[in-house]
Amino acid sequence: MMRPIMGAAIVLVAIISFGLYELKIEVRGLESELSGLRTGITAEKENIRVLNAEWSYLNRPERLGNMAARHLELAPIVSTQFIDAAMIPMRPPPYVPDVASLIPMDDGLGGAMVKPRFVGGVFLPQKNPRTTIRSAGEVPQ
Fold first, then answer.
1. Rounded to an integer, what distance in angstroms lies between the CA atom of residue 37 and that of residue 31?
2. Does 81 map to a domain?
3. Strand positions, DSSP E, the chain
4. CA–CA separation, 57 and 53 (whole Å)
5. H/E stretch holding 69
6. What is the pLDDT of residues 12-63, one digit of tens each?
7. Are residues 10 and 64 in the same domain?
8. Which range in 17-31, 62-76, 105-119 is most confidently predicted, on average pLDDT?
9. Which domain holds residue 110?
10. What are the beta bridge partners of residue 114?
11. Range scoring the smallest mean pLDDT among 39-43, 121-125, 129-133
């Protein structure tokens, strides 16, 4: 009776030892990955500090002023460039179509035109799709 229990205990200790060894290897791998990530973060922080220093150097006001004077044709604002608000023209009133353009029309060929359609600020007359244009020699049915 003791031998099977002792054998099972030995097998159980071996399985637990193997699992503990695998866990140890996995933890070492994760620790090395973490140390690599920390090194990368440190390097990126240093790169950010260098880029911020370069940005500050390139955006110095005296440097930008010199570049603007060389490359841009800017002049100081003079008082004659300002006008009164009363001198600004008012917006024209909105366009209101006349009533005659909304009445159905005759196209001269026997087909009635439908009411114009408002497209992009312009009224466009549209032909009634049920009417057909007939040539001079064609007889209506």
1. 10
2. no
3. 105-106, 112-119, 122-127
4. 6
5. helix 61-71
6. 999 999 999 999 999 999 999 999 999 999 999 999 999 999 999 999 999 9
7. yes
8. 17-31
9. 100-132
10. 126
11. 129-133
